[in-house]
Amino acid sequence: MADDRKASIADLQKQVTAKFDRVRVTDFGGNPKYQTIANAINALSVDSYIGSVAFIGRDSSGGYSVQFNTGNTGYSSAWPEWAFEMAKTSLINGKEMWVIANGDPFGSDLLNVMVLA
């Protein structure tokens, strides 16, 4: 079951990456910020969130913890190292993050995370 879920997430990640690869900087033109990317991934039936990182941390077993807040909702979970590093950059620099996930923005469902300008 866990292997099927990992395979499903990996497949969805490839689809998201393929959509990003098709988006060009010139596509942004007069569109609202990030709207072109949002439109590109919308067809994949994934969820995206813009929010801030409230805290990051490590536990004694080496896991990476992140508290990601959107509006008045917070999501705290273990994130993979690649996403944790982006959360760390976001927190240190006081920048918002855009999180794309297969459902809620919990670590096991993350597909892509970006630190916003």
Task: Tell me what you see in this structure.
- By secondary structure, the protein is an alpha+beta fold.
- The protein has one domain: OB fold (Dihydrolipoamide Acetyltransferase, E2P) (Beta Barrel), CATH 2.40.50.
- The chain has 3 helices and 5 strands.
- It has a 5-stranded antiparallel beta sheet.
- It starts with a helix and ends with a strand.
- Mean pLDDT is 83; it is low at 24-30.
Summarize the SSE layout with pairings.
Layout: H1 2-22, H2 35-42, E1 47-58, E2 64-70, E3 73-78, H3 81-93, E4 97-101, E5 110-115
Antiparallel strand pairs: 1-2, 1-4, 2-3, 4-5
List keywords for this structure.
31% strand, alpha+beta, OB fold (Dihydrolipoamide Acetyltransferase, E2P), 36% helix, 5-stranded antiparallel sheet, 5 strands, 117 residues
Give a quick summary of the entry.
The chain has 117 residues and is of the alpha+beta class. 36% of the residues lie in helices and 31% in strands. The protein has three helices and five strands.
Mean pLDDT over the full residue set: 83
SSE topology string? HHEEEHEE
Give the C-level CATH assignment. Mainly Beta
End-to-end span in angstroms? 38 Å
**What is the domain total for the residues?**
1
Major sheet details: 5 strands, antiparallel
Could you give the count of β-strands? Answer: 5
